[in-house]
Amino acid sequence: MIEFLLHNEKITLTDIDPNTTVLQFLRVHKKLTGTKEGCASGDCGACTICLVELDENNQLRYKTVNACITLVSALQGKQLISIEALKQSQLHSSQQAMVDNDGSQCGFCTPGFVMSLFGLQKNHDHFNRHQTHQALAGNLCRCTGYRAIENAAKQMFEQPIVDHFDPLEESIQQQLAQINLNTQRDSAMLALNDNYCHLPNDSDTLAHLLINNPQSTLIAGGTDLSLAITQHNTRFSQLIALSNVKELHQYTISDHQIEIGAALSLTKCQKIFQQTIPEFAALLDRFASLQIRNQGSIGGNIANASPIGDTPPALIALGASLILRRGDSRRSVKVEDFFVDYRKTVLESSEFIEKILIPIPTQPYLFKIYKVSKRLDDDISALSAACLLSLENEKVTKICLAFGGMAAIAKRAYHTEKALENQHWGLAAVKSAQPALEQDFTPLSDFRASSQYRMQVAKNVLHKLLIETPQVTDKSDELTAKTRISDYV
Ligand SMILES: Cc1cc2nc3c(=O)[nH]c(=O)nc-3n(C[C@H](O)[C@H](O)[C@H](O)COP(=O)(O)OP(=O)(O)OC[C@H]3O[C@@H](n4cnc5c(N)ncnc54)[C@H](O)[C@@H]3O)c2cc1C
Ligand code: FES
Ligand code: FES
Predict the structure, then answer these.
(1) How many Å lie between the centroid of ligand 1 and the Cα of residue 2?
(2) What is the pLDDT of residue 378?
(3) Strand ranges inside 110-256, DSSP E
(4) Strand, helix or coil for residue 217
(5) Ligand 2 pocket test: which of 22, 49, 68, 295 has the largest number of ligand atoms within 8 Å of its C-beta?
(6) Of the candidates 157, 117, 156, 121, the residue with the CA atom closest to the CA atom of residue 137
(7) Is 250-359 a domain of CATH 2.30.180.10?
(8) Which residues surround ligand 2 with Cβ inside 6 Å?
(9) CA–CA separation, 119 vs 122, rounded Å?
(10) What is the pLDDT of residue 476?
(11) Residue nearest to atom 37 of ligand 1 (CA)
């Protein structure tokens, strides 16, 4: 059984297939058809809904997510707000602003845009262009334009930001707290026929469930896993959801290290990195869309072991490690040693990622992350690179260079690092190290980029790194057509 609020109504679900998406639940089970299906793969934002949850201070946190790739288990202990709940006797201010500014478009994309504006309004108290772009980047429309919608966002913040949700917040907080209390006593579970999903509350229960059911599939945010359901018609018969495992959502920050529970959402990770490793936070602005970052986890990004996942190169360059747990045993593995081959990791049967330990660079250093993709927002990398560089008197004392999209796994460019170590950090060193990248990698050609393009951009990344190193003098070069590509990295 799982419990949640649909708008203000308490819902108890027991016999539902755990492979059901929130979109199917709304449209098919509840006949709430305002939320649309565009792509069913998290790309277009037509299905955007808002999930409201209690944060660590018991305050309500509104997060927009893609209903098409969020499974019903994710609703446990939350309030689900769909487009139908916005209008009461009058349009909600986010809807009225869309009407007043001619922002309303076709019936497919508009509900999603409105929900993203609603989420923006609930999370901020004044208009900010960057935040608006971030909120809307996961809502795609190629037919009209975004200017009118941006104007709607501006108007929305000019009006008093009190709506019919605000007076109910205290009651919603209490109801969600009560639901959470119920599930602490009796952990939640969904089952229909032979398909079930356990929702353990803590890491010990999770560890033992996995030992007893080694064939189970873990689901954190589901932003990778659910695509198997919506795109390939896979049905998972034994799921274990990480959404309630409290330790996996905790984090601590000390002077030199961040410890992050594996199921922490990328949005929450971004907030942590803003205070500690701002370059990492900036990368996450370009990770998928806000809807995906609100739902997807850092542990899922690592465990998925995609060669073009965005966090592994950054984690490798920072020297991060993972705490892997199997039953009562734990071991520590460096992120750079975690990936074995294409989509293969060192994870053993019944083992899971419990925590990620990220050292905060302390000595003077330069940390840069470059993501190269066809679109700025909501796009997966063709190639990515992360570099942690330490210099003393313009000499390279330490360099850690990690690439994604250049091999079957995210990995370090050891030959290139070696070619740069102890060298004067300047154009000559970069030029002599660039060929070493060909020893490190033989990239593939695919629909994202050709092998040749990937190699050229990787070389340009080194040059860009030099250009972006403050106080280094020897970085001039006549820009050739090839090096100019680095401007687009
Ligand atoms: C539209 C779209 C855009 C995307 N854009 C990007 C992008 O720009 N950059 C990028 O890197 N990725 C992107 N992704 C991929 C995805 O969002 C990320 O990989 C995300 O971090 C996955 O996290 P999750 O919690 O949703 O993982 P899930 O889907 O829940 O799980 C992924 C895999 O990891 C396993 N797993 C999860 N947690 C654990 C754990 N703690 N221990 C062991 N195994 C575990 C699951 O069993 C599953 O095999 C995108 C996805 C979509 C749909
Ligand atoms: S339907 Fe396109 S993101 Fe969900
Ligand atoms: S998708 Fe709705 S107007 Fe373009």
Answers:
(1) 23
(2) 87
(3) 188-192, 195-199, 217-219, 238-241, 251-253
(4) strand
(5) 68
(6) 117
(7) no
(8) 37-40, 42-47, 66, 68
(9) 5
(10) 67
(11) 300
Instruction: Name residue 251's beta-bridge partners.
Output: 260
- Looking at all shown ligands, the one closest to residue 239's CA atom is 1
Long-range CB pairs of 246-255, under 8 A, 24+ apart, other chains included: 246/201, 246/202, 246/203, 247/202, 247/203, 247/354, 248/203, 248/206, 248/220, 248/299, 248/354, 255/360, 255/362
Cα distances (Å, whole numbers) of residue 426 to 100, 108, 430: 55, 52, 6
Testing ligand 3's pocket by substitution, the residue of 144, 146, 149 carrying the most ligand atoms inside 8 A of its CB is: 144
Domain boundaries, the chain: 2-167, 250-359, 366-488
Give me the average pLDDT of each 10-residue run along the chain (489 residues). Answer: 95 93 98 97 97 94 98 97 95 95 93 98 95 97 88 90 89 95 80 91 96 97 97 96 96 96 98 96 97 98 96 98 98 98 97 98 90 90 95 94 97 98 96 97 92 96 94 63 42
User: Which tokens sit at 279?
Assistant: 């370059």
Residue nearest ligand 1's atom 6 by CA: 288
Ligand closest to Cα of 68 equals 2
Supply the pLDDT for residue 195.
92
Cβ neighbours of 424 (radius 10 Å) = 14
Nearest to 143 by CA among 215, 272, 44, 225: 44
Q: Sign of torsion, CA 305 308 310 311? A: positive
- CATH for 366-488 is 3.30.390.50
Query: With respect to CATH, is domain 2-167 assigned 3.10.20.30?
Result: yes
Question: Which helix (DSSP H) or strand (DSSP E) does residue 334 occupy?
Answer: strand 329-334
Three-state secondary structure readout of 20-48: CEHHHHHHHHCCCCCCCCCCCCCCCCCCE
Nearest atom, ligand 3, residue 44 CA: 1
Check residue 470 and give its pLDDT. Answer: 85
With a 6 Å cutoff on the Cβ, whether 222 touches ligand 1 is yes
Substitution candidate for ligand 2 out of 24, 66, 229 with most atoms within 8 A of CB? 66
Q: Which residues line ligand 3 (CB under 6 A)?
A: 105-106, 108-109, 141, 143-144
Residue 253 structure tokens: 């920050």
